[in-house]
């Protein structure tokens, strides 16, 4: 007889019984701590963190029921908050909303609204859950512009309090409050579960029996988690006030916790494998089948069957009540019955598989039976069974990871904010990010009324293409009824400009053209009361776009693409007050960054998250106030009057035929008497990289890269040449080296022509 066998026979029976009971109690404690630990960790990661909750909850828009209810609520909110005529357009608005809610723009707005209203949805004060979808009105208005512009203009896009009610009495969802109390207990509960698992195995003198008990506890924990995932949507639906809301609540909750439900199934599988391992390594010699397993379960239930008459009556009543509940709550009960049946089949299959793997000869069987069956003796058969069991657990773990990766990857994808199109830019300050700039962005071939233009596409198309810096000039203009190339002529109010901002103009057109513009002012009778702020280049007679119109384009772009920062560099020939008025009228004033030159340069992520993602730079006026940043106080730039293509060729370009070399920074400053730095008169570097406006201490760098032929307008042909990669990139790199600065704006004509965007993207690419 072995030593182990002697130990077993000499241990008193009451001690073995006590150890077995203690092991079962630890198994029960393992079930509690494991189930609560997994559930609380999941809740902490997905529910009570506002950002992750919003990112995960975004996928509830995949449900038709959710979109239907949300569209109804949103339609009511729009009609109730807008002008009275919107009521007659209810059907049009409702029909437009459903496809909008499936767009990335609306999903992003929905996600941010949920993040903001997270604390109110899981309300601690008040009983109504609401989300603010005001930004979504901009998407709706933009969608309606093409088909129904009058309706689009009636949409109250400026409303900041479009609160869409999604339910009442949400405070009644006590399950969430219970989970919140367990949120920070996840690690402690998991640690306790590990302790109780070890205690379960080693406390009982029969190791196989204790492993079986541990497997049952784990599987039952998974079943309870599955029951939670099944019941919670039904509970959520019970707090709805109408059938549509109920369907939306149920569908939303099911989508939200779908990975928790999958996780519970895999946990059941892991518990089943532990039970199968215990059974397969027990030398009882009997074959486990579905029938034998059901018989064992039935016999176990029979042992608890009441013997007294009162007990039998109570038992019968409970069976009747249970039957009624199954009929009434069949949607809840059927999934639980299915998972129980599946667990039994998985157990039988696992035992049979492990029995085949561990099959041994009759001699080995007698030896195994003769050994102490209360201890694991790791002979070759048991080793093979253990190895296959471990492999099954690994497969189950991998399956759990892969099957729940959809929700995690969606959350991770959303969690990785992309600023100006790249996640790597979010933590970079402004002076380390390159912006593609459109020189005279308002003068476009796509907009009517422009006699001379320097961009092919309109401002919305430029933004969609990748332009993130708009270089424009504001002028006072007075509209007329004279039509020029498809638009009413606008007369420049030069007198008003000189009164407000007496600045020498940078005239780039011929004297004959200027004289013609002045003659138009004299010949056409205009009403000064109609004066407004326009974007013009030198003279509005050559083309004009209302400033508020351009600002509304920017606002619309940021509504649908909120994770972007736009630089608006304005050559301002108008007053600060009129600039501010235009910003407020276009509903973008609150988006303008307050620039503090003495503070650290903000990152793109900070600007986006604060919703101050328009960097306004004024060429002439500047701060105060703080939103009106003096452009060439924070910026320094290069020359911009290049008459020929060859003036922009630089070393490194195959088109460059000179002898200059670029080896490092070029001295560009001399100390002034007061200790400040000023530009030197003589620049020893490349002429196209020479200092121009700004000062040596200006932290941001603008590279001007376009050709302006004397007496004529720029052409696409010229832009195609100078915006080519082998011309633009060498010059950018050479200017970076000689000026010792990273380029913030690379400004070009006809921005979509050539490779300017490619150059900017390469500069912004992570190292």
Structure characterization notes:
With 767 residues, the protein is of the alpha/beta class. 53% of the residues lie in helices and 10% in strands. Among the domains are: 50-176, no CATH class; 423-764, Alpha-Beta Barrel (TIM Barrel), CATH 3.20.20.190. It is built from 30 helices and 15 strands. Strands 3, 4, 5, 6, 7, 8, 9, 10, 11, 14 and 15 form an eleven-stranded mixed sheet that branches. The longest helix is centred in the first third of the chain and has 34 residues, at 13-46. The two termini are 70 Å apart.
Number of helices: 30
By secondary-structure content and strand pairing, the structural class works out as: alpha/beta
Shape: elongated
Low-confidence stretches: 1-8, 123-127, 168-176, 360-378, 411-415, 504-509
**The CATH homologous superfamily of one domain:** Phosphatidylinositol (PI) phosphodiesterase
> What is the CATH architecture descriptor of one domain?
Alpha-Beta Barrel
CATH classification class of one domain: Alpha Beta
Q: Span between N and C termini?
A: 70 Å
Mean residue pLDDT: 79
Strand content: 5-15%
Kindly provide the radius of gyration, computed on alpha-carbon positions and rounded to a whole number of angstroms: 37 Å
Helix content: 40-55%
Secondary structure: number of strands: 15
What kind of sheet is the major sheet?
Answer: 11 strands, mixed
What name does the CATH topology of one domain carry? TIM Barrel
